[in-house]
Amino acid sequence: MSNPVTIIMIEDDEGHARLIERNIRRSGVNNEIIPFTNGTAALDYLFGKDGTGLVHRGNALLILLDLNLPDTSGIDILKRVKENNHLKATPVVVLTTTDDSQEIKRCYELGCNVYITKPVNYESFANAIRQLGLFFSVIQVPPAAT
């Protein structure tokens, strides 16, 4: 049996983070969610003390990534994850307010698995997150490479 998926949420807006977690839970997903409010702390966690990403070998991770972070760009985080031999199979869901078609295209080219634009409307956003929770409950996430 595979390890349960750990959800890494990189979101600097605490209100959005609470809304995302609440709606993921409402959709029946009870996996551990590890929240980060900035990219630096998230990168430190993902890549470990030695910077290789080997710390997560055999673990199944799924990254929820906001692109607009206070200290680093979500694009840079996406790029680093997808270029890393140990983390590149980790699914990345970009969850951001940016709906620029060039930005969306770039994220997919860098390897994001799903791109969701946060609607400004609370109900639309909550509905999108509930659908994301249903998505989490049915996908198979590969463990980090050895």
What is the gist of this entry?
By secondary structure, the chain is an alpha/beta fold. The protein has five helices and five strands.
Structure description:
The chain is an alpha/beta fold. The protein has one domain: Response regulator (Rossmann fold, 3-Layer(aba) Sandwich). 40% of the residues lie in helices and 16% in strands. It contains five helices and five strands. The chain has helices at 14-26, 39-47, 74-83, 101-110, 122-138; strands spanning 6-10, 33-36, 61-65, 92-96, 114-117. A five-stranded parallel β-sheet has the order 2-1-3-4-5. Helix 4 (101-110) links the parallel strand 4 and strand 5 (114-117). It is globular.
Structural class: alpha/beta
Which stretches of 5+ consecutive residues score pLDDT under 50? Answer: none
Order of helices and strands: EHEHEHEHEH
Q: Strand arrangement, largest sheet? A: 2-1-3-4-5
Q: What's the oligomerization state?
A: single chain
- Integer average pLDDT: 86
If classified by CATH, what would the architecture be?
3-Layer(aba) Sandwich
Distance between the termini: 17 Å
Number of helices: 5
- The proportion of strand residues reads 15-25%
β-strand number: 5
Q: What Rg, in angstroms, do the CA atoms define?
A: 14 Å
Identify the overall geometry. Answer: globular
Give the biggest sheet: 5 strands, parallel
Helix content: 40-55%
CATH topology: Rossmann fold
| Count of all domains | 1
Can you say what the CATH homologous superfamily is? Answer: Response regulator
The CATH class turns out to be Alpha Beta
